[in-house]
């Protein structure tokens, strides 16, 4: 009688993992992940699920401006959450704004991750002058607040290339600005992990086998530093979205014809005291909820990857 060994699939191994086991038992993590996925799917499929296209000037009527939500007097059933000062449907602008805010947040974190990983690995692995040089740059940048760095870089971009060029490439500019402002968080965390990992036997064995430094850094050390990277990335997505919203509110972010959640709040702030509170309130609620669920997921990941404090 021959016995066949069936190797479980990668998906089956994930379902049997401690990570998924703890996730199933945590109601806050499940709720946060569900809400985040709803926001993500709305952003991805915005043209399909949005009632109107806020970019289509033919679909916008200025006579529909500042209409209240449907449960208030003088509302229009076509606009569930009312309209803004240009006659755009608030629900549609929120859905498209989610797409822009999440795009900027995820891409900016991707840039931070690349810069911080390369710099942190190099500083921790090589040490000496390379370590001192990169860490002093990180220390100098950390002495300024993220918003200060972002405002300075944004102002330099606008002064150098002009407001029209900045508006045309606003998403790319914000990704670069926020990415440059936040990479030290990754670099310092990864450096600390590398300093602990490079003294272990598997690194010494890789050196003895003649592997080059880049291969040891990226193929051997980096996979053992993924836990803190994942936790930081979750928190940094929320920080990047908030940074974009703050820059847009200050007029240094997305232009008014490309609504992000931050620019929608900025537009509506001018009308909040005239009674049209919904222009700011609903984008603000969505922004707060989005950042909240991302932060809750980040806190849960931090606890799961730290067995000393996890009690789930």
From TrEMBL:
<dbReference type="InterPro" id="IPR025966">
    <property type="entry name" value="OppC_N"/>
</dbReference>
<keyword id="KW-1133">Transmembrane helix</keyword>
<feature type="transmembrane region" description="Helical">
    <location>
        <begin position="276"/>
        <end position="298"/>
    </location>
</feature>
<keyword id="KW-0472">Membrane</keyword>
<dbReference type="InterPro" id="IPR000515">
    <property type="entry name" value="MetI-like"/>
</dbReference>
<keyword id="KW-0812">Transmembrane</keyword>
<keyword id="KW-0813">Transport</keyword>
<feature type="transmembrane region" description="Helical">
    <location>
        <begin position="100"/>
        <end position="128"/>
    </location>
</feature>
<feature type="transmembrane region" description="Helical">
    <location>
        <begin position="28"/>
        <end position="49"/>
    </location>
</feature>
<dbReference type="Pfam" id="PF12911">
    <property type="entry name" value="OppC_N"/>
</dbReference>
<dbReference type="Pfam" id="PF00528">
    <property type="entry name" value="BPD_transp_1"/>
</dbReference>
<feature type="domain" description="ABC transmembrane type-1">
    <location>
        <begin position="98"/>
        <end position="298"/>
    </location>
</feature>
<dbReference type="InterPro" id="IPR035906">
    <property type="entry name" value="MetI-like_sf"/>
</dbReference>
<keyword id="KW-1003">Cell membrane</keyword>
<dbReference type="GO" id="GO:0005886">
    <property type="term" value="C:plasma membrane"/>
</dbReference>
<feature type="transmembrane region" description="Helical">
    <location>
        <begin position="140"/>
        <end position="159"/>
    </location>
</feature>
<dbReference type="InterPro" id="IPR050366">
    <property type="entry name" value="BP-dependent_transpt_permease"/>
</dbReference>
<feature type="transmembrane region" description="Helical">
    <location>
        <begin position="165"/>
        <end position="183"/>
    </location>
</feature>
<feature type="transmembrane region" description="Helical">
    <location>
        <begin position="221"/>
        <end position="242"/>
    </location>
</feature>
<comment type="similarity">
    <text>Belongs to the binding-protein-dependent transport system permease family.</text>
</comment>
<dbReference type="GO" id="GO:0055085">
    <property type="term" value="P:transmembrane transport"/>
</dbReference>
<protein>
    <submittedName>
        <fullName>ABC transporter permease</fullName>
    </submittedName>
</protein>
